[in-house]
Amino acid sequence: MDTPAPGQDAARASSPDKPHRILVAYATRHGSTADVAEWIGDGLRVPGSHVDVVEIGSAPRLADYDAVVVGGPMILGWHRAARRFLGTHAGELEGRPVALFITCASLTETGEDELDGIPITKDPWLVKKPRTQGRLTRKERYACPVHYLEGARKEAPDLHLVGAAFFGGSLDLTSMNLFEKLFVTLVIGATPGDSRNQAAVREWAGSLVRELKAG
Predict the structure, then answer these.
(1) How many domains does the chain have?
(2) Closest CA to 145 of 163, 162, 171
(3) DSSP readout, 74-107?
(4) Which of 33, 140, 154, 160 has the highest CB neighbour number within 10 Å of its CB?
(5) Which pTM was predicted?
């Protein structure tokens, strides 16, 4: 992707006639995260905003956008393409407000509403309270928001994140290899099925518009 010429970003932002352009870039394994990305795009489409929703491999120039939302599923860690996208374009993304979304099969409720100053949103269909308060099991520690977000931010830890959200995904064991099946069932303890919560996704996106513009 091309780097904007000096002053290009400022000129675009200062023009009152141009819509606020938001890119939603997503990685997906079997397509279910693509639906989540589209719901986010729908929630971001308000008067004065232009939103493009694209798979990460087809993402256009970041120079054409004022804000970026990046998402992907947890598959033995956050999707490799999503992490690579953040690392490859860290320099360009640092000049823009960025939000992340993560689809996963399990999430431990540990009570926080922000991490490192980043507001976080947790799908109420997804979170589960620990069996024993104050003493997490190995599975519960793995599924903590801080662990998921840390892995997602690893490639570009200095981004200006205005929000991060965790949503239920769709888990189909028939599409996984043996190692992945063992991991999600034994390590995570996930239950197969479609746990996507469209209402929660759209609500988060609607609340995110102001943060992306203010950022």
Answers:
(1) 1
(2) 163
(3) BSSSB-HHHHHHHHHTHHHHTTS-EEEEEEES-E
(4) 33
(5) 0.83
